C-alpha cells in the first residue's frame, strides 16, 4: 500500500502509532515499525537520558524507521530535542506548543517534521514553515483533545494544504483507514488500538478495562478549563466532572488530575487513575501482537476500498 506517507517515511503501511505518555516506549515503537507501520517513542514526562536510552534500545529491536514525539510544553524540551537530533531518528511529531522555531534544527539533522495541528490556519502556517507532513487529530481521540471532529478536520484541512495529511482520532480498524484514504489523507495515526497489543507496556488491568468497555464509555474531563482530556468513565472522572460542574478552581482540579495517568498506566489503578482512551472502543476485543493488529487493519482496508470501487 503506497501513499505519500509511506514514501515520506519509507514505511510499508500508512499507519503511525500514537505517542502516549508513560506508554509509548522502545518496545511498542519497534513492534509497530517491524509490522510495517511507524512506531513512536513518547517523551511526555520523561527525562532526556530516558529518551536517549529508548532510542538506542529501539535501534537494537528494529532496523525500520521510527520516530519520537516532542511535547512542546515540557520544561526540558530543548534537551530532548538535542538528544533526538544527536541520535538522528527518522521523524518527529510535535504537539502542545509552537513547533516552527524547532524546524531548522530538525531539518539540519535530516529528521522529518510532522507537527500536530488543530485547524486549517495552523496547517497552512506549518506547511509554509517547512513541515514535511501534518497530523490532524479530532476530538474522538484519547488524551488531550481539541474541539473539531476528525471528519470536520479532514473535510477542511486536506484540500487546503499540499503536504501529506495524517488523520488521527477514532481510527481503530481497516474501514477507518480506507475512509481516511478516500477523503484524501495520506495515512492515519492510531493510539488507543495499540493499547491492547501484547507489546504495549500498560498494566494488565488497564488493558482489561478497555476490552470490557462499551462504545459509550468515554467522557471528557476539563472542558471548562481548556484542558480537555478524553478517557474511560471511572471513579476519578466522576469525581473530577462533579467538581468541575461546581466551579472548582482550576488549580484544585489540576492538583486532582496530576499523576492520574501514571496511576492507571503503571500502577493499574483503573478507578482512581485516568484511563486515557479514544471513542472507538469495540474493536478492542483481545490482547494480541502488534503484527496481527496491523495486518488485520490492512486486510480490512483493502476489502473496503474494493467495495468502494464497486459503487462507481
Spans where pLDDT lies below 50 across 5 or more residues:
none
Strand content: 5-15%
Q: Distance between the terminal alpha carbons, to the nearest Å? A: 21 Å
Main pleated-sheet profile: 8 strands, parallel
Task: Give the helices and strands as they follow along the chain.
Answer: HEHEHEHEHEHEEHEHEHEEHHHH
In spatial order, strands of the major sheet run 1-9-8-6-5-4-3-2
Name the shape in a single word.
Answer: globular
| Rg of Cα set | 18 Å
Secondary-structure-based class equals alpha/beta
Treating each run of at least 4 consecutive H or I residues as one helix, how many helices? 13
Percent helix: 40-55%
Query: Can you count the beta strands?
Result: 11
Mean pLDDT: 95
List the main descriptive attributes of the protein structure presented here.
312 residues, single chain, 15% strand, alpha/beta, 13 helices, three-stranded antiparallel β-sheet
Helix and strand arrangement:
Elements lengths: L3 H6 L5 E3 L8 H9 L4 E4 L5 H14 L4 E6 L5 H11 L3 E5 L7 H6 L3 E6 L2 H9 L5 E4 L5 E2 L5 H8 L7 E4 L5 H10 L3 E4 L13 H9 L5 E4 L7 E4 L2 H11 L4 H8 L2 H6 L24 H20 L3
Helix pairs in contact: 2-3, 3-4, 8-13
Give a description of the structure.
The two termini are 21 Å apart. The strands form two sheets. The chain has an eight-stranded parallel beta sheet. Strands 7-11-10 form a three-stranded antiparallel beta sheet, with helices on one face. Strand 2, helix 3 and strand 3 (66-71) form a beta-alpha-beta unit. It has 13 helices and eleven strands. With 312 residues, it is of the alpha/beta class. It has helices at 4-9, 26-34, 48-61, 77-87, 103-108, 120-128, 150-157, 174-183, 204-212, 235-245, 250-257, 260-265, 290-309; strands spanning 15-17, 39-42, 66-71, 91-95, 112-117, 134-137, 143-144, 165-168, 187-190, 218-221, 229-232. The chain is globular and about 50 Å long.
